[in-house]
Amino acid sequence: MRRRIVQKNSAAKAATASLLASVAVLAVPSPAHADPGHGSGRGLPARVEALYARASEAAQAHEKAKRKAARQRAELRKLRAAERRNRAHRLRLNDLVGAAARAQYRSGPLTAGATLLSSERPDALMYRLSVKRQGDHALGHLFTAAREAGAHYERERVAEERALKSLKRTQSRRAALREGIERKLHRVEEEVRAAQAKRGDAKNGGHRPAGGAAPGKCAYGGGGRAHRANTAWTLPTSHYWLSAGFGGQGAHWANRHTGQDFAVSLGTPVRAVGAGTVVRVACDDGFGNQIVVGHPNGYYTQYAHLSETRVREGQRVAAGEELGLSGETGNAQGPHLHFEVRLTESMGSAIDPLPWLRQHGVKP
After folding, report:
1. Domain 208-364 indexed as CATH 3.40.50.720
2. Which residues contact 208 (CB under 8 A, 6 or more apart)?
3. Is the Cβ–Cβ distance between 9 and 177 less than 8 Å?
4. Helix axes 46-107, 122-199, angle to 10 degrees
5. Which of the listed residues 17, 31, 66, 296 has the most CB atoms within 10 Å of its CB?
6. What b/e string do you get for 52-77 counting C-beta neighbours within 10 Å, with b at 16 or more?
7. How far apart are CA 283 and CA 217, in angstroms?
8. 3 state DSSP class of 295
9. Mean pLDDT of 296-308
């Protein structure tokens, strides 16, 4: 009995060690490419690290502005719907006021003296005076309602104009943030190229990361199996558990973790989360064999540490289409998929992928 318990404890410890090893990331320097998420920060110019930090802050601000714009658009839709309802009500009241005015013009004002002279009996006189008072009272209410509806319509129109201006300001801020991110990352590329030239790394075309293939010889396994998702967006892999999350800090990453890790077995199919175009297939930095897909909504997704790739640059892919197989290439120890969502094709513009997936109807 004790032997079986010891065997079970040993198996549990081995399984735990295997899981921990599957998501650990080695801090291996990658001097050929500045890599804020999967390389050591040692040797990178301080300016590059600062630019990456500011680009990351701008990316988070961009997403915050996006959420604010969504709320503003919802509020603007409500204001426009209310304005349409109020305008229709105001037009109906104006039609009633016009009809009452035309009727009074045709019949002429009925004075008390004229009513008395035209009445044959006292009871008829009282009845006609009562009807006149009721009519005057109703007409007064109608005029008051028409005035109030007009004032309410004007207030709603002003509120709608303000909401639209606020939305335009938010959209302009989002555009400015994206442009700023692109400028910062362009400066990062220039700084890295200068650092490479200074070290002489540019001469051989880059540094080969641990576990990765030689530059220009990425592990290509041929076309992937045909597969389509039943929805517009889907998960990047299956049979996983979520390990290192976005924004994690520690010795494993130069600054912070820039994506979400999906711990999976070696060779698990990796799929495009949505339709798009493959804009990058590479293996020459800390991400190892990697694929970047550009989507029509302006975002980019990255799939890294693959054991092999199964698509080519420029290839169009559908949601759920196989891109490659999971692995442990680049600065990684143990098989897992590193999944990123970016505002631009370049690293350094990553945002938290889990909320992004949930916004697209995908629940990891």
Report:
1. no
2. 214, 215, 284
3. no
4. 160
5. 31
6. beebbebbeebbebbebbeebeeebe
7. 8
8. coil
9. 95
Other residues' Cβ atoms within 10 Å of the Cβ of residue 356: 18
Q: What DSSP element (H or E) covers 358?
A: helix 353-359
Give the list of residues 6+ apart from residue 306 with CB closer than 8 angstroms, or none: 219, 270, 288, 289, 290, 291, 323, 324, 325, 326, 327, 329, 337
The pairing of strands 322-326 and 276-282 is unpaired
Task: Give residue limits of the domains in the chain.
Answer: 33-207, 208-364
For residues 279 and 104, the model is more confident at: 279
Amino acid (1-letter code) at residue 75: E
Among the listed residues 77, 65, 265, the one whose alpha carbon sits nearest the alpha carbon of residue 177: 65
Tokens of 51: 């630019």
Q: What is the C-alpha to C-alpha distance for residues 2 and 28, in angstroms, rounded to an integer?
A: 43
Question: pLDDT tens for residues 323-346?
Answer: 999 999 988 878 999 999 999 998
**Measured between alpha carbons, how far is 9 from 22 in angstroms, rounded to an integer?**
20
Beta bridge partners of 316: 277
Q: What kind and span of H or E run contains 8?
A: helix 2-23
Nearest alpha-carbon partner for 190 in 356, 34, 330, 358: 34
pLDDT tens for 248-265 read 655 454 457 889 999 999
Distance CA 48, CA 35 (A): 10
Q: Alpha-carbon distance 125 to 144, whole Å?
A: 29
Residue 342's φ and ψ, nearest 5 degrees, are -125, 155
Query: For residues 329-344, b (16+ Cβ closer than 10 Å) or e, as one string?
Result: bbbbbbbbbbbbbbbb
Measured distance CA(27)–CA(40) in Å, rounded? 5
Residues 149, 86 contacting (CB under 8 angstroms): yes
Residue 326 to residue 270: CA distance in whole angstroms? 6
Q: Which residue has the higher pLDDT, 221 or 2?
A: 221
Write out the H or E segment, with its range, that includes residue 337. Answer: strand 336-342
Q: According to the model, what pLDDT value does residue 108 have? A: 58
Which amino acid appears at position 272 of this protein?
A: A
